[in-house]
Amino acid sequence: MKIAIGSDHAGYDMKQYLLNELVQQGYELKDYGTHSTESCDYPDMAVPVCRVVSEGEYDYGILICGTGVGMSLAANRFPKIRAANVAEPVTAQLTREHNDANVLCLGSRVIGPLLAVEIARTFLATPFSNEQRHKRRIEKIEALSHCPDPALNR
Ligand code: RB5
Q: What's the CATH number where 102 sits?
């Protein structure tokens, strides 16, 4: 399993902690930065992480900013990316089982490092349910990217 990880300055310390823990647990990770606590812009790290997941080079992405919100907004612009902003393990499990989420977003100002590790481990260990109703719903989300909305006159 190959994982791409990135953060902004607010998520830097949590990224370093999580990276170290997950490598020790045998996961293969590539760090797409940032590489210090100097202020930077979260889309700049969301882009390379989501690109390699979207292209199938990496299985999952993990993105960390202060709230997880900015990263999830940026990530969900990418084709084939289903990014979930998660703050507890139940959602980590269900977003894998139901949504087949492939990018995990975390808020370093919202949760602590131990909870982040537990969430990431749950997310990475949980398979998609493969149930038809969940597949159908994901296909409907995917179709939104290609479907002009008549209510918007385009
Ligand atoms: C940075 O101050 C902060 O805005 C960013 O990390 C993130 O929380 C945005 O959603």
A: 3.40.1400.10
